[in-house]
Amino acid sequence: MTAINTVRFRVKSGRDQEFLDAHKNIMAEWPGLKRANIIKADGGRYCVVAEWAGPDAIKTAMPNMIATLNSFRDTLEDLGGGKGVTDPISGVVVLEVK
After folding, report:
1. What is this structure's pTM?
2. Considering 10, 29, 82, 97, which has the largest number of Cβ atoms within 10 A of its Cβ?
3. pLDDT (tens digit, 9 = 90+) per residue, 26-81?
4. What helix, strand, coil percent values describe the chain, rounded to 5?
5. How many domains in the chain?
6. What number is the average pLDDT over the span 8-33?
7. How far is CA 73 from CA 9, 14, 60, 69, 94, in A?
């Protein structure tokens, strides 16, 4: 069962490349990761969208995700509202359109 996780970030001004570099090679080595994309919106906002073999693959990768986050945490701004520097969500795919 395919699972997806997304994590929203806001990167400090001028730190975009550091943020992107932290993700380039590390994510490719995570077991169960099918694909990942990073999207950029205005105002330094980014979102990682990752597709996994299933929810267990996300749980298994959690230590890797946290280690990666810790490697670039100082590039991030607090999102406010008690969220801290990330706004993650994950779950199983319940409808695939295309």
Report:
1. 0.90
2. 10
3. 766 788 999 999 999 999 999 999 999 999 999 999 998 999 999 999 999 999 99
4. 35, 35, 35
5. 1
6. 89
7. 10, 14, 21, 6, 32
Backbone angles phi, psi at 57, to 5 degrees: -65, -40
Angstrom distance (rounded) from CA 98 to CA 96: 6
Q: Has residue 97 been placed in a domain?
A: no
Residue 98 lies in a domain: no
Q: How far is CA 26 from CA 20, 43, 65, 91, 96, in A?
A: 11, 25, 9, 22, 27
Which residues form the domain of 55?
Answer: 3-92
For the chain, where are the alpha helices, taking DSSP H only?
A: 16-24, 55-72
Mean pLDDT within 7-25: 93
**In the structure encoding, which two tokens stand for residue 62, read together?**
């959690």
Give the tokens for residue 17: 């490349």
